[in-house]
Amino acid sequence: MHRAIFSGQRIPRELVVLPTEEYYRRRYRGSRRGRWLLFIVTAVAVFVAALGAGAARAGQGVTLNEIESGDLLFSGAQQGGYVPAVHLASRARISVRGLVAEVLLQQEFANRSGDWQEAVYVLPLPEDAAVNGLEIQVGERRIVGKVREREEAAKIYRAARAAGKRAALLEQQRPNLFTNKVANIAPGETVHVQIRYLQPVHYDTGTFSLRLPTTLTPRYIPGEVLADTELVTDSSGWALPTDQVPDAHNIAPTMQPAAELTAIGSHKISIEVELDGGLPLADITSPYHDIDIAKRADGRYSIRLRDGEAVMDRDFALHWRPRSSSMPRAALFTESRKITAEGGGREGTYLQLLLLPPDAGDIVRRLPREVVYVIDTSGSMSGNSIRQAKESLQLALSRLQPNDRFNVIEFNSDTRAFFPRPVAANSANIQQARSRVEGLQATGGTEMAPALRLALSQQMPGSDALVHQVVFITDGAVGNERALFELIQQSLRDARLFTVGIGSAPNNHFMRKAAQFGRGSTVTIGDLGEVQERMQTLFTKLENPLATDLQLQWPQELLVDAYPKRVPDLYRGEPLQLVAKIQGGVLAGEVQLRGRLAGQQFVHKLALKESDADQGAGIGSLWARAKIEALRDQQLQSGEQSDAGKTLRGQILQLALDHQLASPYTSFVAVEEKVVRPEGERLSKSPVPNAVARGQVLQRQTYPRTAAGLYTQLLTAAGLLSLAGLLRRGRLARGKMLRHLRDLLRKMLPRPTTTGRCARGAVERGLVASPVRTR
Amino acid sequence: MWRTLLFAACLSAGLWQLGGAAWLLAKAELAQVLISDAWAEQLQSGSEVKPWPWADTWPVAKLQLYRQEPLIVLAGGSGQALAFGPGLLETSGAPGQPRTTVIAAHRDTHFGDLGELEPGAPIQLQDSRGRWHSYRVSETRVVDSGREQLPIFAVPGLLLVTCYPFDAIDAGGPLRYLVYAEYLGVSETVQL
Question: Residue A291 and residue A304: Cα distance in Å, rounded?
Answer without folding.
Answer: 6
